[in-house]
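quick one before i forget lol
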Amino acid sequence: MNSASAKSSESGSPKSSPIPIVFVVDDDISVRESLEALIRFVGWQPETFASAEEFLARSRPLAPSCLVLDVSLPELNGLELQKLIAPDRIDMPIIFITAQRDETIRSRVLGQGATACLFKPFSDAALSDAVNAALE
């Protein structure tokens, strides 16, 4: 019996850690649907929202999580949502996505604590890498 088997036998079955939740907030349904499919394919649990207000209505998760957040949202935009949740959800990294190829926006969101800022269209690998880094 190898040491891994011995440890498993001594402590019973190993506990599985909860599947990380990747929240997506984007007002474009095609973006939400494609990101939901990618996130599920990679093995995380996706939850999508059409607005910042919908996201705020959801209770805080117990599982590890991160937020993929569009900069441009109606009503409460992504930058405003980041400011609003940052003090209470320091354990939830934010990855911004935006169609505006503006380095000023990227610098601003990264300076305010976002872990990444991706310009649309971005590759599946770019998003997957950003989420992996955020969840580490």
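fyi The chain is about 45% helix and 20% strand.
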